[in-house]
Amino acid sequence: MISEQDIRRVAELANLALTEDEIVRMARDLSGILAHVDKLNELDTSNVAPMAQVLFEAEETATLREDREKPCLSNHDALANAPVAGAGYFKVPKVIER
Questions:
Q1: Residue 22: CA atoms inside 13 Å, Cβ hemisphere, count?
Q2: Which residues pair with 90 in a beta bridge?
Q3: Cβ neighbours of residue 34 closer than 8 Å, sequence gap 6 or more
Q4: What is the pLDDT of residues 26-62, one digit of tens each?
């Protein structure tokens, strides 16, 4: 069970401002998700081979594209549509204020 104190701490770390109603709802929802994960952990997967990618049955690589090397964008091209750029970088407003 996730406590409301845990939710407040995670929200603080994520710099989120949650209302009391949202804190209660998040605690309930996350507790429900963890209960489902616990239920999944009860399944016997000893005869299931580990998988790195879930594929459709159509073909072995049906959901994967061919891996091809391509040239990277130049710094000039990457910054061409930037609203504000300088010294070779994107310039963005400061967003962390505490």
A1: 7
A2: 85
A3: 1, 2
A4: 999 999 999 999 999 999 989 988 776 666 555 665 6
Distance CA 23, CA 15 (A): 14
CA distance 57 to 60: 7
Rounded Cα distance between 83 and 16, Å, is: 27
Cβ contacts of 85 within 8 Å, gap of 6 or more? 79, 91
The backbone region for 87, taken as left when phi is positive above 0, alpha when psi lies in -120 to 50, beta otherwise, is: left
**Its pTM surpasses 0.90:** no
Q: Coil, strand, or helix at residue 90?
A: strand
Report d(CA 10, CA 20) in Å as an integer.
Answer: 14
With a CB cutoff of 8 Å and minimum separation 6, the contacts of 61 are: 55
